[in-house]
Amino acid sequence: MLYLKFDKKNILLYAVTDRFWIGKQTFWEQVEEALKAGVTFLQLREKEMEECEFLKEAKQIKVLARKYNVPFVINDNVKIALESDADGVHVGQSDMRACEVRALIGAEKILGVSVQTVMQAKIAEREGADYLGVGAMFNTSTKTDAAEVSYRTLKEICATVSIPVVAIGGISANNVALLSGSGIAGIAVVSSLFGGNSIYEAGKKLKKEIEAVVYYE
């Protein structure tokens, strides 16, 4: 099976799904609207769903992501990532170690790891991560147990590792400029994309704002 190759430009506007925001639109419609708006990377996150339903959904969303040529990863669940043949998986510090995940998914699939410190970042890079998710950068309602990471720490992580970093946690079009100069390759968003009146308009605005912050050599 061919997987989408990872490039740091993939994580410019990184969408993380959340069923909390389902309303007038179906989950599928919301994800497609985000992709139409210019999302460059997609993570499917399902914390409460039964495994069989999760797998079914993963296969469906993978088809949608392929339609827009956007890399697609599964949050935390390596088993679902493998069975759905997703492009990769994203894990946190409380999940399997990055080296263990890499051994399971192989060299071709994408591996993202959440970190909050420089030491965690160094270890994740050494153990095979393709990119790092750093946060929470601001107060967030999506993960109430997430401790905030300072701009200084974010910048230090970006300067320390050679793999790209995506900032996450409470990021919106109104505060993304505060991350300018940190060295990030992009932002990961949930509520600021899916929680408004128009996913399409929110996505367009977020992409415009992050493009003004990120510089690719």
Explain how this protein is built:
The protein has a single domain, classed as Aldolase class I (TIM Barrel, Alpha-Beta Barrel), CATH 3.20.20.70. It has eight helices and eight strands. An eight-stranded parallel barrel has the order 1-2-3-4-5-6-7-8, surrounded by five helices. The model has no long low-confidence stretch (mean pLDDT 93). It has 217 residues and is of the alpha/beta class.
Key words describing this protein structure:
TIM Barrel, alpha/beta, 217 residues, 8-stranded parallel barrel
The residue-averaged pLDDT reads: 93
Helicity range: 25-40%
Class based on secondary structure composition and strand pairing = alpha/beta
Low-confidence stretches: none
The second-level CATH architecture is Alpha-Beta Barrel
Helix-strand sequence:
EHEHEHEHEHEHEEHH
Task: List the SSEs and their pairings.
Layout: E1 13-16, H1 27-36, E2 41-44, H2 51-67, E3 72-75, H3 78-83, E4 88-91, H4 98-105, E5 110-115, H5 118-126, E6 131-134, H6 151-160, E7 165-168, E8 186-189, H7 191-194, H8 199-211
Parallel strand pairs: 1-2, 1-8, 2-3, 3-4, 4-5, 5-6, 6-7, 7-8
Q: Quick recap of the structure?
A:
With 217 residues, this protein is an alpha/beta fold. It has helices at 27-36, 51-67, 78-83, 98-105, 118-126, 151-160, 191-194, 199-211, and strands at residues 13-16, 41-44, 72-75, 88-91, 110-115, 131-134, 165-168, 186-189. It has a single domain, classed as TIM Barrel (Alpha-Beta Barrel), CATH 3.20.20.
